[in-house]
Amino acid sequence: MNKSYKILSYLCAGLLASFILFTACDKSDEDPKSTAVELLSFGPSPALRGGELKIIGNNLEKVSSVILPTNVSVSSFSTKTSELITLVIPEETVEGRIILKTAEGDVTSISMLTISEPIVLSSFSPQTIRPGEVLSIEGDYLNLIKSVSFSSNISVEATSFVSQSKETIEVRVPENAQSGPIAILNGDEMPIIVRSEMDLTVSLPQVSQFSPNPVKAGTMLTLEGSDLDLVKEVKFSGSAAVSEFVSQSLEKIELMVPSDAHDGSISLVAASLVEVSTSEELVMVVPEITEVSPNPVKNGEALTITGKDLDLVTSVSFGGGHEGTILDGATETEMSIQVPMEAIEDLVTLTTAADKTVTTTTILNLVQPSISALNPSDAKFGDEITIEGDHLDLVTSVIFSGGEEAAVNSASENTATVTVPVGATSGPITIVTTNGSQVISEIDLTILVSVNAIITDMPDMAAPGDLISIAGEKLDEI
């Protein structure tokens, strides 16, 4: 893994072409030669740290030291004559002006010395690492690096490095770092970015097994595997998730299974938000039904179901898709449900928060009302009759022979009252219950001739086939 970026290209023309030149003041041939220290040029620029810097001028033998930016003093020269000084550029040198120190004063360059900085990222170790552990990055000019970036744009600033030198950076891997290449940045406004050719593998939690399976909602599930201390959340199929655990270690997690957990794989969520799913699927426990009583049961009354794991049940559905009301006091082995008034005869279905269902093996029968007497059994339109029998509080309306239907005036366990509608004819009556079921009486109701109708006006004479008009009161009873 060797990848380097050379920030600046070097000047390859001759030495003089790489020098920075200065324009001196015009002097006549007659002027006496100056004794002042003069800096005419220096180079190369850009220059390499560790490379040679040449300074050309006059009276340079008077220079006691050269100050390179920033405040890097060099007094040991490779060459020192009146017209040339050569020196090795120290590693700590940065971009800036150079200063010649003399007994007569300082001479500062007008132009800037620039430094070529070939930042190199040669390797990192280890290649597989856990979040929180220290990653060692090897290379060159790493002292210039201001941040290390991990996949998913997670960065660590230089102020948080464990250590930093020209050849090595030690950095602690953030807990939310993801696997992928790493990058080092020098922090400039337009930064130099050097990326690794190989990926860093950040360890993720793994599950080798979990138990029990099947598991009951609300009970403890144990996950075993590796790096499980990195888990921040456990997701179940559906929308259930757990972030607070009974216990958590490197090799084990104990947690309570949510009531709305569904069958399916379990996902472990790391701080990096990367999810790791189990290959094995978790199966949720289903309630068991052993008995339903009473059967038949009356609409509106309580049905008792006994069995196993009934505390998982969140809803009970009756025939016609009507949901019953689960009464207080339900336990793991027994529960009571108020049968809906609209329920019809059918199987009963229990549903859990995990959308698991179990259905009775036999149809639930419903109590039907019975008719023992009609009082009176002879009536005219508008008369109220009383129906006698059992479970008549279930009756909502009465259908008379002839098809006319009337709502009951009142209904109780043993009686129901109804007004005979105009248009009813003699014959049996049919009572209609809250769930729409019908019971036909074995007793006939006799409709008496109406004595309420009164004719107040009609023609004295008419020919066969003529249309006549009759006026009066309660003529609809005729």
Protein architecture, described:
With 478 residues, the protein is mainly β. Helices cover 1% and strands 48% of the residues. The protein has 1 helix and 49 strands. The strands form 13 sheets. Strands 1-13-15-19-18 form a 5-stranded antiparallel sheet, with no helix packed on it. A hairpin with an 8-residue loop joins strand 23 (206-211) and strand 24 (220-226). Residues 1-30 have low confidence and may be disordered.
Key phrases:
478 residues, mainly beta, five-stranded antiparallel sheet, 1 helix, 49 strands, elongated, disordered N terminus
Structural class: mainly beta
Helix content: under 10%
Spans with pLDDT under 50 lasting ≥5 residues? 1-30
- Computed Rg: 50 Å
Q: Reading side by side through the largest sheet, how are the strands ordered?
A: 1-13-15-19-18
Mean pLDDT: 89
Total beta-strand segments: 49
Which strand-content bin applies to the residues?
Answer: over 45%
Number of helical elements:
1
Which word captures the global form?
elongated
N-C termini distance = 108 Å
Q: Tell me the major beta sheet.
A: 5 strands, antiparallel
Looking at how many chains there are and whether they match, the oligomeric state comes to single chain
Quick synopsis:
The protein has 478 residues and is mostly beta strands. The longest helix has 4 residues, at 15-18. The chain is elongated.
Write the layout of secondary structure elements.
Blueprint: E1 3-5, H1 15-18, E2 20-21, E3 38-43, E4 47-48, E5 52-58, E6 65-68, E7 72-74, E8 79-80, E9 84-88, E10 99-102, E11 105-108, E12 115-116, E13 119-125, E14 128-129, E15 134-140, E16 147-151, E17 154-157, E18 163-164, E19 168-172, E20 178-185, E21 193-195, E22 201-202, E23 206-211, E24 220-226, E25 231-237, E26 241-242, E27 247-248, E28 252-256, E29 262-270, E30 275-277, E31 288-293, E32 302-308, E33 313-319, E34 322-323, E35 325-326, E36 334-338, E37 344-352, E38 357-359, E39 370-375, E40 378-379, E41 384-390, E42 395-401, E43 405-407, E44 410-411, E45 415-419, E46 425-433, E47 438-447, E48 454-457, E49 471-473
Parallel strand pairs: 4-12, 14-22, 40-47
Antiparallel strand pairs: 1-13, 2-3, 3-5, 5-9, 6-7, 6-10, 8-9, 10-11, 13-15, 15-19, 16-17, 16-20, 18-19, 20-21, 23-24, 24-28, 25-26, 25-29, 27-28, 29-30, 31-32, 32-36, 33-34, 33-37, 35-36, 37-38, 39-41, 41-45, 42-43, 42-46, 44-45, 46-47, 48-49
